[in-house]
Design brief:
There is one protein chain. It contains 13 helices and 13 strands. The chain is of the alpha+beta class. It has 2 domains: 206 residues; 168 residues, BirA Bifunctional Protein, domain 2 (2-Layer Sandwich). Strands 8-9-10-11-13-12 form a 6-stranded antiparallel beta sheet. A 5-stranded mixed beta sheet has the order 1-2-3-6-7. A two-stranded antiparallel sheet has the order 4-5. β10 and β11 form a beta hairpin. The protein is elongated, with a radius of gyration of 25 Å.
Amino acid sequence: MTSVVIPIFKPEKPEELKVDLPSKSENLFERIIRDPTNPDRPARETRCSEMLCALLLNCETLRLQFFEQFADLFGWSGLPLAELEYDIETEQAIGSKRDDLRIEGYRVSDDDREQVLLWTIEIKVQAGIHQSSYQDYDELPLPDEIEDSVPQIENYDRWLTSQTVPHKGGIVLAIPNLLTEVDELNTTNQWCCLRWSDLAAWVESALEYDSLPNAEQTLAEHFLGFVWNNLRDPSDMSKDQLGIDDLALTRAFESHGRECEARIKNLTQPLVEALKQSGIDFVSGPKFLSSSFWPTTRSTAFGQILDDNLFDSAVWMNLHAGVLGQNAVLFIESTKRNSIKKTVKRICQQRSDALQQRNTNWFVEKSDEFDAIDVILKKPLTWLLNEDDQSKALQEFVQAGLEDLKATGLIDTLQAIPGEVESQ
């Protein structure tokens, strides 16, 4: 079979976003769907449903991040989302009706496939929640009086009631948040409301922190670009007006900011000892980064692994372990645009496959001389919520990552750079 090369154009970077995106004319979803908010465009909600379905089917890492957010909304802790097998499809039957998107999660063993999770998702672009003819289900008794028409969500809710799945619920995805409308409905199951803007924010965060494998980044960028251009909540588009999220963040920081920082530092300070016991020959340190967690959202133990006195210009290289943003991390960073930066990037790229064979959460940063971080291991902090001893769990994560760095020879090779430069 002849391989086909798809050209990836250099993306533009909108001022409001922290990541690069394809231009509107190059965005594959823009080419297919074409202005979904135009009432003259047919099947716009169906096509947007298919777009989201395609993203979930083809981006396994991003899919898990989405599902973790969904589970948090429903208050489902401890569900082994990463271990489940998923069926994800659009336009599935609910009696004579069809839901826009359905997600089913199964726990699979040698001789059994047990469904443990069910989400039905109603997707909105321009329309609100509409009326629909009453749908009865054989598993449920009929009410004394049957109305000619009911809100469509109430039909789906009765169907959910008939499903014997331990974790089940409904999601309404729309441009504005439809929580007020959904709260007024006669439902018995849990329903959560999301905006397209929320999905866009999750994707932007994943791209910004480079938590997606290269194979998923392009599709995620096209999805984010399409939502950003067409499906954002209008209330998100004002940069000068305070919003409810701003006030919520202010209140949260006022009441929990210092306590949160103290907890994070208590969690990360013991990692100094983990670095000391790693067997790595540090030039100086390890020690604890004493600066405030806010606003950098970094709290790490670190040690210098390259002697900066061996170079004519200022060159430093440190190994960090701790918390960065919403992730537990272990990473190597070096001076931006220094005399050996290209060599460092090349060495990290050469070890990339070996690292990912040991742990798929290793990422080698793109070959950009302006990036300080060269290679990083990340894991969302949400996993710690299920750990009885969070400090021990974080230390074990770091210790495993340190073994990866030593086993692949990356540390030794980086520390040999001064000799390589001198021999040239």
